[in-house]
């Protein structure tokens, strides 16, 4: 799980897809099927958490001298 | 005679030049015609002729003016120029010094757009194979636009609504006016220096073609092409197609559209995660059910219900094999016995007694053959002898004498074959078959 935490959402999704496809094909030995099922559930939770539990990001603006500052729209129009 | 006052060529030319320069009509004029003999000097100055059917005028456009031209003049192009007439002293030629030029009929911007589009297309800047893929789940989206326009607001709200977990970095840029193109190009360059940006949106809201013009400039087009970050262009409205749109990796019809193309919707992603999870659970449940069924089937199977069936067949097989073994042994014994019999017969035939008997037989046969051959020879000789005797008898003088012939002999018992053997009065003996006559030679007559 620690290792999987480092996965990006995209990588985790791809891994999950591979696992689901392998299980659906059904020719994985049973012990392995159960093992990858567990891994798949962890990946699925990981993906879910990545989408749900991350705080909303604030937009930033790059200033003239290259610094990042928080940015919000100034309504001029 | 008074000497006329001669002018130098230079003074005359100066005079003429002044005539042009002081004529208010020639100071700011508009001329319409067709470009020919167009030459562009490396300094950027342009030298050409403007002509119509009846006349022509030399023209020059210095780089300070030609630099602002959006299009590239070409021979045969119909143009309208604004400028002043003056004289170029070294050659004594009057010419028009062009300050502004625009194509006649079609708009200048339209022409410039078409020219640049053709050029960049030929260079391969629009090639499909050069397009970079847009990442599916970007962590950070860069936005290059005006920080105060409607575009940035649309983009930010759209991204926040769809994919609030994405970072957004805004690179402020001028999006209209002469400084817009370098400002946009610089912002693209800056964004490329940051490694964290997954995708860039470059654009602005709607406006006139002049207001959107920066996105039709070569500088911006090349900056987009050079960018290693995939770029989504979003300029103006759906109907506006800029050069930037052609070079960009993906064109969005509007800034909002660009934000939608840049990030997925988080609900869709959650849905997809859930879908996969459901498939995962179903797949493993199906598998377990399948395995259980398999186990039950095995438990209920024939073999488990009638275990003796497992070995019955084998027993039967064993019996059959034993039977085959016995039969095989018997057959083999018989075969060997008959072989032995044959050999024994051959042995008996070859016993010494047998051999002796054979030799005896052969001996007797030979003996018989020899005696038969001997008898044959004897018989043959006997026959031959008889034949000779008969022949001999036929030739015997006695036989001849039987037919009336006789033989005369001297007293010395020598056969008389000639008259010369005897003399007159000599006694001879004549032999006949049944006796002999004792005679005396009366006379001797010789045959004539």
Describe this structure in words.
The complex is a heterodimer of chains A (77) and B (448). Chain A has 77 residues and is mostly helical. Chain A has one domain (2-70). Chain A has helices at 2-5, 9-25, 30-52, and strands at 59-62, 68-70. Chain A has a two-stranded antiparallel sheet with strand order 1-2. In chain B, helix 8 (243-247) links the parallel strand 9 (231-235) and strand 10 (250-252). Chain B folds into four domains: 9-105, OB fold (Dihydrolipoamide Acetyltransferase, E2P); 114-264, Hypothetical protein af1403, domain 2 (Rossmann fold, 3-Layer(aba) Sandwich); 267-317; 401-440, no CATH class. In chain B, helix 5 runs parallel beside helix 9 (255-262) and helix 6 runs parallel beside helix 7 (218-226). In chain B, the strands form three sheets. In chain B, strands 1-2-3-5-4 form a five-stranded mixed beta barrel. Chain B has a five-stranded parallel sheet with strand order 7-6-8-9-10. The interface between A and B is large, with 37 and 38 residues. Strand 1 (59-62) of chain A pairs parallel with strand 7 of chain B.
How many strand units of chain B?
13
Give start-end ranges of low-pLDDT stretches of chain A: none
Number of strands of chain A: 2
Number of domains of chain B: 4
**Average of per-residue pLDDT values of chain B:** 88
H-E order of chain A: HHHEE
Quaternary state of this entry equals: heterodimer
Binned, the helix content of chain B reads 40-55%
Over all CA atoms, what is the radius of gyration of chain A? Answer: 20 Å
The rounded distance between the terminal residues' Cα atoms of chain B is 204 Å
The helix/strand class of chain A is mainly alpha
Low-confidence stretches of chain B: none
The CATH homologous superfamily of the largest domain in chain B is called: Hypothetical protein af1403, domain 2
Q: Please, what is the average pLDDT of chain A?
A: 80
Largest sheet of chain A: 2 strands, antiparallel
Chains forming the largest contact = A-B, 37 and 38 residues
Give the SSE string of chain B: HHEEEHEEHEHEHEHEHEHHHHHHEEE
